[in-house]
Amino acid sequence: MSLVSAAKYLDVALSGIEDGLIVVLSLAALALGVMQVTLRYVFNTGYEWNEAAFVLVTITAMLTAGVRAVREDRHISVDILPSIAPKPVAAIMNVTAVLASLGLCVFLAWCGWLYVGFARMMDTASPETGIKDWIVYSIMPTMMCLFALRYIIRLIIGVQSKPSHKEGAS
N or C terminus of the chain: which is more exposed, having fewer CB within 10 Å? Predict the structure, then answer.
């Protein structure tokens, strides 16, 4: 199995996991939000952990969707220069952008893991949920590692000067 075919296999496998996470976490956020609003405004009660849980699942779902946006090249980017540059120059610009994004993701993951280590050392927990803070803070470096993995896959499979899903689009 070549490196490119292994990257394509990993790409497809990650896509399924990302789709599942986005759906499950979005539905969980919807359920938590509806439950809290119903309890608060209909029954004048509620759970104090609900707000924190709602925020956590929403943020995790949106970060997962961001990872998915990297796969589909639908993240925010400046496209004007590559679109007017000659194809070889545009390809170099796109590879440079992916390398810069990869570097940033790796840096943020590393900084995040340093902070998670600090939070573990402090051994604090959320008063609303009782969940250890380091577990909650682990979401960010984990997602940054997934972003980095997506950029690595893009580099292995090949960064086109103009992504295929945008070709023919107006």
Answer: C
Helix (H) or strand (E) holding 108: helix 87-122
Q: What whole-number distance in Å separates Cα of residue 143 and Cα of residue 108?
A: 10
Q: Is 132 helix (H, G, I), strand (E, B) or coil?
A: strand
Q: What are the pLDDT digits (tens) for 79-118?
A: 788 888 898 888 888 889 899 999 999 999 999 999 999 9
What is the C-alpha separation between 32 and 40, in angstroms, rounded? 12
Helix (H, G, I), strand (E, B) or coil at 125: strand
| Distances from the Cα of 74 to the Cα of 27, 66, 166, angstroms | 23, 9, 9
Closest CA to 110 of 158, 136, 145, 59: 145
Local confidence band at 78 (pLDDT 50, 70, 90 cut-offs): confident
Residue in 32, 92, 94 with CA at minimum distance from that of residue 60? 32
Angle at which helices 3-41 and 139-157 cross, to 10°: 150
Which residues touch 12 (CB under 8 Å, ≥6 apart)? none
Residue 159 backbone phi and psi in degrees, to 5: -95, 115
